[in-house]
Amino acid sequence: MPLWKCTNKSITNEEAKESLDAVKSACFKCETHSSDCSIAKTAGEINALMEE
What is the DSSP secondary structure assignment for residue 10, as one 8-state letter? Predict the structure, then answer.
């Protein structure tokens, strides 16, 4: 199971998928994406967990 580094909690892939969906739903759908976007950064971190 992947480990969420912020809390050292093991999570299931289903939990990661649910969280990723929630984060993506919070997206403001900007025309230009920025690496400074905290929503995109979090989505990327969760996606990386799912690939482990």
Answer: E
